[in-house]
Write a structure and sequence with these properties.
mainly alpha, Methane Monooxygenase Hydroxylase, Chain G, domain 1, 6 helices, rod-shaped
Amino acid sequence: MRRLLLTLTLLSVPGWSQLPAQQPAQPPIVVKVEMPPTNPWWIHLVELVVPGIIGAGLALLGVWLTNKRNVAENAANREHQLRLEIAKDKIAAEAKSRDNRWEFQKGVYTKLITVVLDLIRLRRELLLLLDYRGRIPPDDLAGHEAIYQKQAANRQEYTARYVRYITQMTIANLAMANDAIFALRGSQPAQTSQDEDSDEKRIESDLGLLEDQLRTLSNAGRKDLWGTPENEAKNEAAT
């Protein structure tokens, strides 16, 4: 029995020797990451400088944009002001031209109406002289001589006024309404002469022409200077 057990023991020893040896457990590999050494002073400097640079850049950009906008607005304002001044100057020039033209027209109408009134006055005065001379006795030579002298003075003054009348009629071509100037041209009185001093019919005819001209001038002047036709003027006078 002992031999049997010994034999089994001897036979089992080689088998045990062939079993693989159990490897011991290896510990885990630890990787250590080391950060580079830091410089707190440099980081602090960057933290202070970078925001300042960004803020300064933004401020400069804002100033540049503001200046650009201001330049554009100033240029637009100057252009607007220039156009406004040009428009104002144009309006002022047109108003001045219109006023000058109105003053010129008024002067022409005033002078022409004045000289026509003078001619009417002289023609009426001549008719009175003729009537007065007809009532003087034939033997009153002094009375007749006085009337002749007054007629000569009337004729001399009428001639001077007639020259002014023709001059103003010529100037009226530049300022008067066409219908008025045509009416005046077609009804001009004749210049007096010594033979016409006793022609009552001719004097009365001239007087009628001059009175018609006076009405024509008044109506044309009212229309040209104030834009009021004759009918409207009559209505305003009636009210």
